[in-house]
Description:
By secondary structure, this protein is an alpha+beta fold.
Amino acid sequence: MIGSFADCLTERCKNLDNYYVVTFHSVSQALRFEKLALSQGIAIKLIPVPRVISSSCGVAARFTEEMLQTVTDLVTGEWEALFHFSQQGNKSKAERLSGPWKKT
């Protein structure tokens, strides 16, 4: 198993300095993605979309760098965007990533 849901609830996962966030076009797409990831044993956590990305309401999936390849292999075509987050002092920096998961 890549990671468990319990692992993602630990302090290690809550206080990440380096992690990834996937955004979706709708809450239902996020929920479908969560169900798919958890059925594959991949630890993700649904979170509100971080304000640094968007001020609108929404749900995103957060996961660690160790799970990046495994998560991107699950692309369902429902992703809106993938972001890499890192800490710079007291601020989070978000970088939008492009990749093979992006629909053309």
